[in-house]
Structure formats: C-alpha cells, structure tokens
Amino acid sequence: GGDAFKRCFQCGLCDVVCPWNRVRNFSMRKLVREATFGLTDIESEEIWRCTTCGRCPQQCPRDVRQIDSGVALRRIATEYGVFP
C-alpha cells in the first residue's frame, strides 16, 4: 500500500482541513512524507494525534490515503510496544 504515498506532491490541502491545526501545529503531510522515506519516529506523539476524521483524503487531489498511513504507523508502534 505504500505506492499511494509516493503520489503526494506536498500541496498541503490535507493540512489545511485538519481539525488539529486549529489548536496545535500538526502536519499529516509531514508524517506521510517521513513515512515515504522511512524517517518517522514511532516513539513520538505525532502519529497518535490524527483523529481519522477523513477530511484529508477527501481533499487530496492525488488520492493519497493519509489515514491508512497513520494507522499503519500506529500498528508498527504497537508491535514494538510503543503507546501514547
């Protein structure tokens, strides 16, 4: 499922509609980009912030499934015993 994330061209529409950005600086786009390169820190709280509201994939012009990426990162973290 990682091929879909390669289509992201960093337009930022997912970050604009994210409800977390109203109260805190959060970037789902950054998480997707880091995951593409294998740079995501699974011990950070960032991967747990997404509420899976569905707004980001609805706005994505390239059909990137940001929520799937976030959930996959959470699964990896829990396999290593990392929880928020």
Query: What would you give as the CATH superfamily?
Result: Alpha-helical ferredoxin
CATH topology, what is it called? Fumarate Reductase Iron-sulfur Protein, Chain B, domain 2
Structural class label = mainly alpha
Shape: globular
Number of discrete helical segments? 4
Sheet having the most strands: none
User: Distance between termini?
Assistant: 25 Å
Helix and strand pattern: HHHH
Number of domains: 1
Number of strands: 0
Oligomer: single chain
Specify the CATH class: Mainly Alpha
- Which bin fits the share of residues in helices? 25-40%
The radius of gyration is 12 Å
Beta-sheet strand percentage? under 5%
Q: List segments where confidence is low: pLDDT < 50 over at least 5 consecutive residues.
A: none
CATH architecture heading: Orthogonal Bundle
Q: What's the quick description here?
A:
The protein is mostly helical.
Secondary structure topology:
Layout: H1 13-17, H2 28-36, H3 55-59, H4 66-79
Helix pairs in contact: 2-4
Descriptive overview:
By secondary structure, the protein is an all-alpha fold. The protein has a single domain (2-79), classed as Fumarate Reductase Iron-sulfur Protein, Chain B, domain 2 (Orthogonal Bundle). It is 39% helix and 0% strand. The chain has four helices and no strands. The chain is globular and about 35 Å long. The protein starts with 12 loop residues before the first helix and ends in a 5-residue tail after the last helix.
